Amino acid sequence: MRKYLLALMLILSCEFVTGAATPVVPGLSDIGVEPEGGAADGDMRTKIQSLNIPFTPKYTRELKSKIDDYIRIYRKKTSRMLGLTSIYFPIIEEYLKASGIPDVFKYLPIIETDLNPRAVSPDGAVGIWQFMPSTGAIYGLSSDKFVDQRCDIHRSTEAAAKYLKKLYDIYGDWALVLAAYNCGPGRVNSAIKKGLSNNYWVIEKYLPEQTRNYIPNFIATAYAMQYFPEYGITADNPDLDLQLTKEMKVYKELTFDEISLVTGLDVSQIAILNPQYLRNFIPASTDGNFLTLPKRIINAFNHFVSLPDNRKNDYLKVAPIINEERDLNTSFYHKTNIIAGSGESLKDIAEQYDISVHSLVVWNNITELTLASGTEVAVYLPKKTEVKITEVPQSRKLKSFKLTSRQVDQPLIGDAILDLKHYVNFAPTEYVTYIMLPEESLQDIATKYGVTIQDLITLNQFDDEWTPKPGMIIRIKESEIIKP
Predict the structure, then answer these.
(1) Rounded Cα–Cα distance for residues 212 and 218 (Å)
(2) 424 CA to centre of own chain
(3) Which pLDDT belongs to residue 344?
(4) How far apart are CA 65 and CA 39, in angstroms?
(5) Cα 177 from Cα 166, distance rounded (Å)
(6) Backbone phi, then psi, for 287, in 5-degree steps?
(7) Which of 37, 133, 216, 480 is deepest in the core (most CB within 10 A)?
(8) Helix, strand, coil % (nearest 5) of the chain?
(9) What is the CATH number of domain 333-382?
(10) Per-residue pLDDT for 289 more than 50?
């Protein structure tokens, strides 16, 4: 709970961002002054030249100051920022790769908004990529009182990747692409004409001050993201439910309260993962709206939304009772330590476990993609559910599957079989649970399971004269169940 609340506070901490970078240090020339030498400076200079960025950087006093902000002065902020990257970078990387954009352009949202998906600039630019309404509309991003697609990580990143590709088609130089992204192609074209060059470092002095700071900001961010372990900085990672996610499309309206009832997630978690929905409400859409949820529950929730409306309503009536049965202290994930083989890389491990390379980077505090043989790599995975389906005859018996160390029953409500695989947050116990059906008695349940009525009364602490109602959860002790 603390982790995702901290993430929410960080995301919502800045309602407005200016996008303006640190002013140029007084006395520097137009292209910057190199700092005085020294062992530390020499090491930093070497690291800058070795950065994985698609253009040649310049080492200036201004750049060194910006790097120091990340690695020395504002270390806690860098740690929090690294934690937020574990939520957003895996999504951003996929869209950049699909459009042929260098992976390092995922650092742009850090410069633009500190990875705040609901950031709003004084000029009206919105989201981690800071789309103005007009530019957003050109790239298919709509907004209304319920949904602002500029805040949608998926749609806005897809739009940003298209825009970056268009800029590269124009300039053929990634440094100029960064400049144009910041101040617009018009100003870059004007600077090119004045400087009679397509080299960014030559035309830099003809660009706005904010843009002259933008490239050093990008280089400094890349430096912090690629060398943070060497400065003893670790990621302040949010809850794993915010990191290990998957998206689906929903076509009918849903409220965050309904999603919370079905999944057991807190509404604030759902809001962090889905910042495009301005009123905790997903409207109906013929094209479908993206919904991002933890991987561990996405399949079960997908099954829920596919049910007929009346069956969904049946389930929502009993969901509050089911949620009361959940153990909030249960861990939904387990840690596995992988020993890297000869020549094995983080990418190999990521593909094997269907997670992102960046997740492995922030979990293990390493940035070297190729691993030395014997390197231990921590991997966090949702707890596995071993499904065991049994026959469901007309007598409306239960369909069951094994979940961790216990048996969880899948009830029939009306004619619909509800998939309860998302009940990974039931703590292992010595009993199974059953949702009482309409017109069903304790005697019916006792007969079905081969136990006595007194067994049910004792375990569930029923009063002898009290009759349980449909929708109530009935506990049945496993040792008393007659196995087939």
Answers:
(1) 11
(2) 20
(3) 87
(4) 16
(5) 9
(6) -85, -15
(7) 216
(8) 50, 15, 40
(9) 3.10.350.10
(10) yes
